[in-house]
UniProtKB/TrEMBL annotation:
It comes from Allopontixanthobacter confluentis. The chain crosses the membrane at residues 7-25, 74-99, 119-143. This is MAPEG family protein. It is found in: Membrane. Pfam families: MAPEG (PF01124). Gene3D superfamilies: Membrane associated eicosanoid/glutathione metabolism-like domain. The lineage of its organism: Bacteria, Pseudomonadati, Pseudomonadota, Alphaproteobacteria, Sphingomonadales. Coiled coil: none annotated. It comes from the Bacteria. Keywords: Membrane, Transmembrane, Transmembrane helix.
Length: 148
């Protein structure tokens, strides 16, 4: 069950790299068109400096990539805890649901970006992550009931 529990995390890592490439593939040409290629960037510049400079549709990919570096950082250790202590099929199913929702969220944010739908996807994925975190807490706190 360890591999089955870790597989969703591996897929989300791969998806994050895909989003990074998608972001670069849209941002770099847009920066060139805006007259601010990488060689022209000011020292110490950050991605946020491109807000209002590049079209919103281009920046949406960067926004999503940043999101993939935020909440999923809680997902990864949760999955590892469950894989080490003993995940169930239900845990693996929840992990896959979380990853599926995050991928749908990414595609939605990077293309359509209607906030009400995006928020609903985020909320659903957060509920699933909370269930996973609760499971990880339960299996660790109650792993050795004789100690309590």
């Amino acid at each position: 069950m360890q591999a089955q529990m870790l597989a969703p995390a591996a897929v989300l890592v791969l998806w994050s790299i895909i989003m990074l490439l998608w972001m670069a593939g849209t941002r770099l040409p847009a920066m060139g068109k805006a007259g601010g290629g990488l060689g022209d960037a000011k020292p110490g510049g950050r991605g946020q400096d491109l807000e209002g400079v590049l079209p919103d549709r281009v920046n949406w990919k960067a926004h999503n990539y940043a999101h993939l570096m935020e909440q999923p950082t809680i997902f990864y250790p949760t999955v590892i805890i469950l894989a080490v202590v003993g995940a169930t099929g239900f845990d693996a199913m929840l992990a896959w649901i979380y990853v599926g929702l995050r991928i749908i969220h990414s595609i939605w944010q990077a293309t359509v970006n209607k906030v009400s739908i995006r928020f609903a996807l985020f909320l659903l994925s957060t509920i699933v992550l909370a269930a996973l975190a609760l499971r990880a807490t339960m299996v660790t706190l109650f792993a050795n009931p004789g100690v309590l």
